[in-house]
Amino acid sequence: MGSFQAPLLFAMTQPLLTPFRLGALKLRNRVVMAPLTRCRCDNPGYVPTAMMARYYAQRASAGLIISEGTVVSPQARGYPFTPGIWSAEQVAGWRLVTDAVHAKGGLIACQLWHCGRLSLPEFHDGQPPVAPSAVNPEWKMFSITGKPETVTPHALTRDEIKAVVGDFRTAAANAMAAGFDGIEIHSSNGYLFHQFFSPLANRRDDEYGGSHENRARFFFEVLDAIGEVMPFNRVGFRLNPMMSRFHGVSVDADTVPMWEHIVRRANDYGLAFLHLTEPFLPKQLDDTEGGLADVGAHFRPLATMPIIANGGLDQAKGEARLEAGLCDAVAYGKAWIANPDLVERFASQSPLNEPDMATFYQGGEKGYLDYPTLAA
Questions:
Q1: In this predicted model, what pLDDT tens digit does every residue of 218-243 receive, in sequence order?
Q2: DSSP E strands: which ranges in 64-222?
Q3: C-alpha pair distances (Å), 285 with each of 202, 263, 274, 317
Q4: Does an H or E element contain 32, and which?
Q5: Structural domains of the chain, with CATH
Q6: In the prediction, which pLDDT does 85 show?
Q7: CA distance 190 to 329
Q8: Section 126-149 average pLDDT
Q9: Other C-beta atoms within 10 Å of 371: how many?
Q10: What is the pTM of this model?
């Protein structure tokens, strides 16, 4: 099938509908589908399903789809019914998804995920999850048993850190074998990489703790390992530096300098993109030392790689950020859940369906495959 083509008038007047290149990825528009956990992988092997292939194919008019968070190993799990990419069966399941997206002219990258301490013993045969340090995030997690509280995690040893690096290397190779066009490292939102970055979670006194260089060491070891199995111009990463009092991490005076260090070092790799999230709750930053009201405006001058903006943006705000040069593409989340033809709706200035939050994680086709399109 041919790719979606916006009407010429709209393509001329809407930056979101113009093509752009993220590294090796040639996007036909700048409307990115953000990674969205949907908990539809309800089988014992955490294998992507034919239903998931239909879901992603419905949304293939995006310039780039970034998959839901995909765990790199059994140890990386933190939520029920989330897909993995460590087994041959999972690779075959993801191949169904990527083939379906490519058949409609789309591009899809796999978001590689390790939850670290944001997990529960029920996912690890009763053992605690892992983290940089034995510090409980004191957070309630989503689970089929309700919303149990986190526990004190096991502090990773040096050898265990090396094993996790290897898990990411394998996952990246598997993503390429599954037909993905690239990968995104989920290094934000309080998960394992963010735990290494944050002094609230990382209290190590070895080469993985303390200084900016040390707290970023695990991230760059993973990046180097991924580069052994795929080109860096197909690799992106996601940062959310302004997470305030969420998932056990928060903003302090050292947050911006730490993230500046990460971005400057990452510039040397020739990566496809940096995916930056604006503050979830900007009002919480009003009295916070080191808080940034506009993440993209601060990091744009520092980053030499293309930037994808994300976080509370509608069509008009996305266009404005592109026109101001603050980003190169815009990622939408809930809008894609409820509007499988989001690009077409932007092109024709049509109203959007409202998402049904009650069905975000419930499983099944309702609220997953049944949102109407303009053509319906």
A1: 999 999 999 999 999 999 999 999 98
A2: 64-71, 108-113, 130-131, 154-155, 182-186
A3: 22, 22, 22, 21
A4: strand 31-33
A5: 8-359 (3.20.20.70)
A6: 98
A7: 24
A8: 95
A9: 19
A10: 0.95
Beta bridge pairs of residue 140? 149
Residue 376 has pLDDT above 80, yes or no: no
Nearest-angstrom CA–CA distance, 17 and 8: 10
Specify the higher pLDDT residue, 207 or 244: 207
**pLDDT score recorded for residue 204:** 98
Helix axes of 255-266 and 212-226: crossing angle, nearest 10 degrees: 30
Is residue 37 within 8 A of residue 55, CB to CB? The reply is no
* 223 close to 269: Cβ distance less than 8 angstroms: yes
Q: Mean pLDDT over residues 331-345, rounded?
A: 98
CB 59 within 8 A of CB 65: yes
Q: Which residue among the candidates 191, 208, 332, 368 is catalytic per the annotation?
A: 191
Counting every residue, how long is the chain?
Answer: 376
* Alpha carbons 27 and 62: distance in angstroms, whole number: 8
What does pLDDT average to over the chain? 94
Here the tokens at position 270 are 């020739």
Integer Cα distance of 234 and 63 in angstroms: 15
> Residue 167 has what pLDDT?
98
- For 209, the token pair is 């703790």
Quick check: is 332 catalytic?
A: no
Contact between 195 and 202 under an 8 Å Cβ cutoff? The reply is: yes
Place of tokens 């993209």: 296
